[in-house]
Amino acid sequence: MRALLLLGGLVFTAAVLGTLSRPLNMLASFWPANAVMLGMMVRSQRLGSSAVAWSVGALALVTSALLMGDAPLKALWLSAANLAGVLAGWLYFQRVPRRAALLGDQLSPLYLLFGCVVAAFAAALVAFAMGPVLFGSEPRRTFLMWFTSEFMNYMLMLPAVLCAPRWPDWTWLRSPPRVSCVSLAPAAVLVASELLAHLMGGPGALGFGVPALLWCALRYRLFTTTVLCLVVGTVKSVTLSMGMMAYTPEVMEEVASMRVALALLSLGPLAVACTQTLRNELLGRLQHAATFDALTGVLSRAAFIERSERLLARPEAFPVAVLMLDIDHFKQINDRHGHAVGDDVLRGFAERLQARLRPSDLFGRLGGEEFAMVLPGISRAEAQSVAQRLCEATRAQPFALSSGEVGPLHATVSIGIAHQGRLLPERAVDELLRRADVALYVAKRQGRDRCAMHGEETVDDPAGGAAPAAAG
């Protein structure tokens, strides 16, 4: 119900605003209602396949036309043409890969261009016969007028509707990010370019803002770029209709040419923005793959070392503890049950321990069954207590396996602890990992399933007693 109300409300509002921009005996200078309806139908598969949603959209178009003073016949005919364009566009986008239809592909601008042509052609095909009756113009002129008007409206408005963030993603409005002069520079240059175009005039003024729009496409998000293209195109269309070029039947060919130019104006920036978005997405995936271990989801070895070095370079991180963890008899698990079962144990182990750490702690996989942790701002006693709890959490519950052939497996972990109270002069990570590795060796020598503190003569025994540490 909420989606239907939103659809009806937005289409009605857009239709009223479009009617207000309509010159005498002409189509509106800017008509966003059809693009809004088509965009919502493409974004929501539930709306697009709902007869009720289409009825709500049609009712919004007819009602807005009647309220704005159109005669019943004119309101019905105009609405029928609008709906024909929306329906044709929706049928076209149903045959386009969904990611590409939502501007998530490098070829999305071309798919969008063809879709706008299809929608505009269908609307003009229904509307051209009403030219002599409603506008006093011949059908050929009506077709040209309607097609170019719809094509411009779809090209300017539809991209912004297709890639608009969903409501949960608008929470940044409550705490907007800091705006710097550097981030505002592309928008400022765009405004200056459009002011210069207005002052100089002439046919070439249409292209003054293109370099600035390309810069915006490189610096801003895709949605921001589509909104800027929409604003620039709308302002140009309205100012042209009010000043430089009157939208009247006598200059129909010039008006049609100008509308096509305005429609294609945003195609270049849109293509750049889509490519830039895909590039950023790919870089994000590569960065994630380099930062996190693909199997367990914890930090990779390189990322763990890098972040640990940055953390241990700050005095406020001390006192600090570094833990080395090794799953006991992991090779036997692999040999007996296979590597798939071993992978399940590694994943379960990492998830179980990650849930018991603080946000400030670092947890990474160094290789195989060996993991490491950096716990900043923790005392020696607290570090040993944390290690004991990690041992208990590992042995307490069996690990669930994805393979049905093998039941749940029990596993234990040995932990070596290195504690440092003061800032080390250099290469603190290497030194603390070395100490923790020595302590881990002690824990394994004394029976595994326990933790050992570097520099102490005893290790924690799971049975509750203390065992003597191995020499060296």
Automatic annotation (TrEMBL):
Q: Spell out the Gene3D superfamilies in the cross-references.
A: 3.30.70.270
Domain annotation GGDEF: ranges: 318-456
Q: What is its EC number?
A: 2.7.7.65
Q: Which SUPFAM superfamilies match?
A: Nucleotide cyclase
Q: Which residues cross the membrane?
A: 51-68, 75-92, 112-136, 143-167, 187-215, 227-248
Which key words are in the record?
Membrane, Transmembrane, Transmembrane helix
GO CC annotations on file: plasma membrane
**Molecular function terms, GO-annotated:** diguanylate cyclase activity
Superkingdom of the source species: Bacteria
Q: Which GO terms describe its biological process?
A: cell adhesion involved in single-species biofilm formation; negative regulation of bacterial-type flagellum-dependent cell motility
For this protein, the record's InterPro entries field holds: Diguanylate_Cyclase (IPR050469), GGDEF_dom (IPR000160), Nucleotide_cyclase (IPR029787), Rev_trsase/Diguanyl_cyclase (IPR043128)
Pfam families registered for this protein in UniProt: GGDEF (PF00990)
Tell me the NCBIfam families matching this sequence.
Answer: GGDEF
Name recorded for this polypeptide? diguanylate cyclase
**Originating species:** Caldimonas thermodepolymerans
